[in-house]
Amino acid sequence: MAEEVERKPVLEMVQADGTDGNCVTFVLHDEDHTFGNSLRYMIMKNWLAADSESPLVLPASVSFSPEVEFCGYSITHPSESKINFRIQTRGGILAIEPFRRGLTELVDVCQHVLSKFEASVKEYKAQREAEMD
Question: Model's pTM, two decimal places?
Answer without folding.
Answer: 0.75
